[in-house]
Amino acid sequence: MEWFKGARLNYAENILKYRDSKIALIATDAEDNTDYISYKELYDEVHVYVKALKNEGIKIGDNVACYMSNKKEAVIAFLATAAIGAVWTGTLPLLGTKATTVRLEQIQPKLLFTSGDFKFDNVEIKLVDRLPEIISSLPNLQKVIYCPSKSKNKIEDISRIPKCVYISEFLHPAREALRDDPADLKFEQLPFDHPLFISFTSGTTGAPKSLVHSAGMFMANVRDYGLHQNCTRKDTLYNQSPVGWISWGMFVNSLHLGVTLVLYDGDPFQESPTRFWDLVDKYDIASVYIWSSTVEYMDIHGWTPTSKHSLKNLRQMFPIGSPAKPRCFDFLAEKVKPGLFCAPVYGSTEVFGSICGLDSNLPVYRGELQVYSLGMDIRILDEKGNPVIGERGDVVLANPYPALPVSILDDENKEKVNELYLERYPGYWSFGDEGWQNPVTKGFIVFGRSDETMNPKGARFNCGDIYFALEGFPGLMDSVCVSQFNSEMDERVVLFVKMLPGHKFTSQVVDAIKKTIAHHLTHEHVPEIILEAPDIPYNLTGKKLNGLVKKLINKRAIANESVIVNPSSIEFYQTVDLGQF
């Protein structure tokens, strides 16, 4: 479907509509190295970046990538890329070498913006160590632009990174040229469906799919921040997500409303019990997007505001990333600030925004999402495709929607789009999530992925990431990786492995598997349980049946055994004892 045929616009021009002295970005870190960037300064700096990109020959349709921590340079580079009409891709800096390479080699960027070491979730992330291997898989890469840390305690050597220059060196010729001849910034006027932003699915079989988004995602986020959240120019916003998460792109989109964004290079939630609340007071933060798992962590450890925290401007906090448990509601409403509006947001990579949003005029029920997002006809379908209320089913979209991706990269015939989103329920767009609508309150609960994606403690990834990490592992014939849930809807990852004949499954093998996954991905990807299985179930077309195994270990019925090419394989998963958690 084509939207707004004949219309032309530039995303960055709309984001940068304010060009005054109001602060647009506050960029800070664990050592309180802080930059304040006004809307006028942001516009001028985007101009410099545009000139620098053009000096490198970047033009409409070229790919520019980012692999860095939560720095102001990422925001500026993104807006400059969009101003030219080039295509932006951010990869999560928490991903390891192999996971990042698999994503970037699909798009083959011409430029890569990156940064130095940073700490996240109590783990020191050393991007510099990963870059040489990543770059070796990117033959079209012209240059790596390195944004150094502001820390006075870090000495950064980029000599071993091929094609790498410091950001100051990259920008210097453009800055000098504009100083001598301050020409106006030209924003390329483009069709509404022109590619703007590439995100990645989690990956099921093979590499993650590259979703191509247009300016439609901008419309969705103006709705989310401007209407559902009632954000205005007086508000300061904080978002926990780094570059590479869709919520980071949503965060940047809110600049259209003239708000102030706080960018934190690191993880304030792990630095001290009060560090985050200190930031809320220091920068007068009004609205917070926070991972549900972080809220739960703060509740468990008692990381509440103290008597010295006024939180005078804080009016709303929104748990994201995974379903918010009732205890998250209790913590935010009872232990943070009286009268605080706290409601979870449910969104997806595909729609680049919320699916179920917020309404401060309606009551909030513990554990439930409030309303469908404006412009979205969301329904819950049973396995036969019938809409249901009061029963668990699959979450689908029933109407055309301008923020859906315009394509999947290298999917000219739309075969991947049909397979992933349209085939299961003809006439609907399927999100692959399992949900339930309360017949009394009309609120919603999303239980998690109904397919193969896992989301333990908010660390969203897919079984495909695990399979890629274990490719070529000595003695391993096959594997299947799924989620198990307990009665409180806590999630843990279970990996079943099938060994090659003559190879034994030992504790040493388990340790080696864990180390391999942590090396290629992150420590958050390491399964909590690793067990040997006699066989792995497949369907008649050769697809591994992750969803079936997930249902079996969670003691749920399976609808159709006839699709299983090796039906005897399921007996093990029906009876395996995984213990309680």
Automatic annotation (TrEMBL):
<protein>
    <submittedName>
        <fullName>Acetoacetyl-CoA synthetase</fullName>
    </submittedName>
</protein>
<feature type="transmembrane region" description="Helical">
    <location>
        <begin position="75"/>
        <end position="96"/>
    </location>
</feature>
<dbReference type="InterPro" id="IPR020845">
    <property type="entry name" value="AMP-binding_CS"/>
</dbReference>
<dbReference type="InterPro" id="IPR045851">
    <property type="entry name" value="AMP-bd_C_sf"/>
</dbReference>
<keyword id="KW-1133">Transmembrane helix</keyword>
<keyword id="KW-0812">Transmembrane</keyword>
<dbReference type="GO" id="GO:0030729">
    <property type="term" value="F:acetoacetate-CoA ligase activity"/>
</dbReference>
<keyword id="KW-0472">Membrane</keyword>
<dbReference type="Pfam" id="PF00501">
    <property type="entry name" value="AMP-binding"/>
</dbReference>
<feature type="domain" description="AMP-dependent synthetase/ligase">
    <location>
        <begin position="21"/>
        <end position="400"/>
    </location>
</feature>
<dbReference type="InterPro" id="IPR042099">
    <property type="entry name" value="ANL_N_sf"/>
</dbReference>
<dbReference type="InterPro" id="IPR000873">
    <property type="entry name" value="AMP-dep_synth/lig_dom"/>
</dbReference>
